[in-house]
Amino acid sequence: MQTQTVSMDTIVSLAKRRGFVFQSSEIYGGWSAFWDYGPVGVELKRNIREAWWHDVVQRREEVVGLEAAIIMHPAVWRASGHLESFNDLLVDCRSCKQRFRADQLPGYEENVAEGRPDPLEGVPCPNCGARGQWTEPRPFNTMFRTHVGPVEDEASVAYLRPETAQAMFVQFQNVLTASRRKLPFGIAQIGRAFRNEITTGNFIFRMRELEQMELEYFVRPGEDEHWFDYWRSYTLEWFRSLGVRPERLRLRDHEKHALSHYSKATTDLEYEFPFGWGELWGVANRTDFDLKAHAAASGRELTYFDEETKSHVVPYVVEPALGVDRAFLVLLLDAYDEEPDKEGTRVVLRFHPRVAPVKVAVLPLSRKEPLTRTAREIRDRLAELYNVEYDETGSIGKRYRRQDEIGTPLCVTVDFQTQEDGAVTIRDRDTMAQDRVSIAELEGALRDKLGF
Ligand code: GAP
């Protein structure tokens, strides 16, 4: 069982050392709020996407997928309200000249909730501590702008999408016609989104280029609250199913004043990060806001024909929206554990086998033939089933520790006895127990231990 809490510094350093996450453009000093995923990180990220896609899309008869272009027609963002409302409130401290997002200042949200005329009243600057030195808050649209085509004028302005969701509304009719689904049904997408965040930091928690896994779940008006509750609970269950400690997860309902421009109700699944509770997965009741807005702006009908009532309805939408990078951070933080051992401290990432970047490591006890030949044959066989790693360098103890630090659930060790008894040892990451298994039965034994 995991017992440890971990600091962000420890995680950032482990992430770099073991190849999970690197600073973007590091040799040029890094690039704020942009991050690159290394060899082990890409595997973890792929596993997160695949687990989500399998559970939310493929296992469910009523959910289908979509992969849309990142740069959509600018009219999309006008109709969706993003051009007008996708703003953060910017304030500067006159004393130290630092710039902040107003709603992230300590005490600001409480002042708004209490209805104070000046929500910045009494709010201290987190940098220099000055009070009452704030500039007038001004809206800052966080969509990245670019130009499409060779002429850079106002007519060619386009935006990098700040959420993947809009494509599901804009393509609603095409997907419905092609997939012939009945309400309730969902359209899901995984893809990059871009936000010119004002305040960044906390590693990959708040990025300017991020990845989202979003589901737009279309339901009959009147059934939206039932489905809102359903998806709210689902978020919690999903992370629990991946082994995340329940006491570090909670659902938090947004207060009315903090709702996005499109939302009737929003709940966040939050995780207790080392820097405090933070949003992991947002569930919003978007009502019929988006379909109606795009229908009005495009002049196209975006409705569902209800065979039962023989009438056209505009479905309501419940949207569970999860960041891949945030899920990655939570799984990494939550998996981290340390325990005393002979050499000092054993660092182990107790990933659920579904998301573990490497499922099995194959380790010959010595670098000599015939051990290495047998070990490589086993590696090749297992590579047909799982992401495996072969490692013959260093002492066996060091090699186990390396695998523990990237969270590999099982190690298969080929030793001097293997040539005689045709068997290998399977070492378990969490219990460190070792089982002797015949090579002929290895795949079955691994399947039993991993669960797939
Ligand atoms: N379509 C709704 C939407 O985008 P959101 O709450 O703004 O809602 C959904 O974003 C999820 O995307 C968040 O819960 C979080 O996991 C992730 N996310 C949002 N902004 C992010 C950022 N700057 N960096 C990393 N992840 C982010």
Secondary structure layout:
Elements: H1 8-17, E1 21-23, E2 35-37, H2 39-58, E3 63-65, H3 74-80, H4 82-85, E4 87-92, E5 99-101, H5 108-113, E6 138-141, E7 145-147, E8 157-159, H6 165-170, H7 172-179, E9 185-194, E10 209-219, H8 224-241, E11 249-253, E12 265-273, E13 276-287, H9 289-298, E14 304-306, E15 311-313, E16 316-323, H10 324-335, E17 336-341, E18 344-349, E19 360-364, H11 371-383, E20 388-390, H12 396-406, E21 410-414, H13 418-421, E22 423-428, E23 434-438, H14 442-450
Helix pairs in contact: 2-10, 3-9
Which terms summarize this structure?
452 residues, binds glycyl-adenosine-5'-phosphate, 14 helices, globular, 23 strands, five-stranded mixed beta sheet, BirA Bifunctional Protein, domain 2, seven-stranded mixed beta sheet, 3 domains, alpha+beta, Rossmann fold
Care to describe what's here?
The chain is of the alpha+beta class. The protein has 3 domains: 8-84 and 145-333, Bira Bifunctional Protein, Domain 2 (BirA Bifunctional Protein, domain 2, 2-Layer Sandwich), CATH 3.30.930; 87-141, no CATH class; 358-450, Rossmann fold, CATH 3.40.50.800. It is 31% helix and 28% strand. It contains 14 helices and 23 strands. It has a 7-stranded mixed beta sheet with strand order 3-9-10-16-13-12-11, sandwiched between helices. The chain is globular. It starts with 7 loop residues before the first helix and ends with a helix. The relative contact order is 0.11. It binds glycyl-adenosine-5'-phosphate. Glycyl-adenosine-5'-phosphate (GAP) is lined by residues 163, 165, 195, 197, 206-207, 210, 212, 214, 279-282, 319, 321-323, 325-326.
